[in-house]
Amino acid sequence: MSDDNVYYLDDNKLVGEDFLKVYGKNIIKQLKRTDKFKHVPDILVNSTYDVENDEVYAFEELIGSHGGAGGTQQQPFILCPRDWSDPGEIFGAENVYKFFKRNMN
Known about the structure:
By secondary structure, the chain is α+β, with helices and mostly antiparallel strands. It has two helices and four strands.
């Protein structure tokens, strides 16, 4: 892969190889969501995801990375009573919150 790969979020324009595909089907949606936050960082850095070893190279000595992309950390689950409704795919922490509020009331 070349170092000249760029994805322009605002324009949905890819220059070079699709280096984001290893991060899963929702990576563009996740990045755009983050970009809309009130306190979005000026620079967002995500480390490399090693597909062969299923590892995210975190910046600290952890097994994953908080809020990072790639690997099994992108396969979350909710353990809840079986009589709660099946929410299907949930996207974003705010929707996890809504799921819990809806089922706890």
